[in-house]
Every structure is written in structure tokens, then in C-alpha cells.
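Retro notes, structure queue

What went well: the backlog is down to a handful. What didn't: a couple of records were mislabeled last round, so from now on we paste the full input next to the output in the thread. Example, using MOSC domain-containing protein from Xenophilus arseniciresistens:
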Amino acid sequence: MGEPVAPRVLAVHASDVHGFSKFAEPAIRLLEGWGVAGDTHAGRTVQHRSRVARNPDAPNLRQVHLMHAELFDELVHAGFAVFPGDLGENITTRGIDLLALPAGTRLRLGAEAEVEITGLRNPCVQIDRFQKGLMAATLARDADGGLVRKAGVMAVVTRGGLVQAGDAITVLLPLPPHHALEPV
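Corresponding output:
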């Protein structure tokens, strides 16, 4: 094992159309209370089609999708051709265990932007449409048999700013008691 990697933004992505994958960008702008400027999932209320159909007035707890690059390493090792942006995340990170962070954790991204983690991304059948068997590869079981969702975390923007590859990530934990992330 090598030296621990300081938490960093590896890549940023956005898309202005409702599709599965997002496109690499040199930088993205986060807008407070809104999400990624120009991204189809940005907004104060839910933007994901299935959620809009259920309750279009629900708050958007999924303004920004973050995924750890270590998952891509694992998936490639398992034989999948999947790379940053392919699974629809806005921000690909390296050197931070996103899934282990408690709900309410804030991440400072670069010099200005900040997001608050609201919960886990719940993998859906679209992942299998992208590559057969990929959904199962993004799920696991813990020692107690509980389901582990590995497809990243969702967040809301608490402070706007520019985010780009190479930006440092600072973890700001909430006050205890800490609560495990749940799907949102």
C-alpha cells in the first residue's frame, strides 16, 4: 500500500440533458441552494424524473453527486469499462472515503465552494443498462449482512464557487452524535 492521498477533486462533470453519463468539464460552478450551473439535476426542488413524478415540490437533496475514484478502480479491476463521469456524478474525488462520512458532513471544495452531504445514491436499473452486471458490482453486504450502496453520495450546495480537478477537499464533520448516511 502506498502513502495516503490527500483528499482531492479528480474530475468534474455536468450535462444539460437528462441522460445517464455526464461530460468532463475543465471546471463547474456550484450555485448555493441550486447545484451545478447548467446541469439538468440542479434546482431547489427535485429534478430526477422518477422523483418529479412522485412529488415535484419535494426539496432537491440531490443537487450534486459525488463519487470516489476508488470505486472506478475497483470496477475496472472487476472487468468493467467505466470511468469518471460515466455513472452520472458531478464530482469525482480521490483520497476520501465518502461512504463512511456521517450525514451533514460539509466538504469544502477548493477555495470557495462547499456542499453538505445529504445521503447515499441508491443505484438503479440505469446502471445495468449502461453495462450489464454493473448494478450488482456497486452493491455489497457488510459483516452483518446489511446492504452497502457504493455508488457515491448526494449533496446540496451550501456555498457557491468554482470547482475543478486538483482542488483540495477539506472535510468538516458535523457535531456529534453522528448518523450514518441513508439513501436519498
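Agreed that this is the format going forward. Reviewer comment attached to the example: Residues 10-118+153-168 form a domain with the M1 Pyruvate Kinase; Domain 3 fold (CATH 2.40.33.20).
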